[in-house]
Every structure is written in structure tokens, then in C-alpha cells.
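== Sequence entry ==
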Amino acid sequence: MAAKKAADHGNSVKDDKVYEDLRRGGASKEKAARIANAKAAGTLKHQSTELEDRSKADLYAEAKKIGIEGRSSMTKAELVKAIRNH
């Protein structure tokens, strides 16, 4: 039996297979598209240490940009976790 080909998600998604895998894993459409496009462009970085290296103010700004609720009362560790899980 042949492997199923990934559907074409248009010009806005650069790597359809990665996008579909992420969506099946529970990622939002926006997150899956961001990751798929970053991977296709070769700019995807592993965030496990990258986020911890950023300042709390920078993490707060990122949380605000992506719409994380309750960010003003979060610690740096909570901001890292919230960004990762967004």
C-alpha cells in the first residue's frame, strides 16, 4: 500500500507534510503553519534552550505578540512553558 501524499495547503504553507503531522499532533493551524514554514526555510531552531536564554521582558513581549492570557502575572519559567505550549 502506497503512502498517502500530503494535501496541498496552498502558498501559505511551505511544507504540507510537516503541517499535517503537527495538526494530527494537536497543534493549532497557525502554529503548524509557522513551524512548517520555518522548517522549509531552514530557520527552525530548537527552542529547548533558546527560550531560557531570553530575558523575561523579551518572553513577555513574545507572549503578548502571540496572545497568551495571564502573562503579566507569570514568572519567567511560566512564560517559557506558555510560549512552548502555544
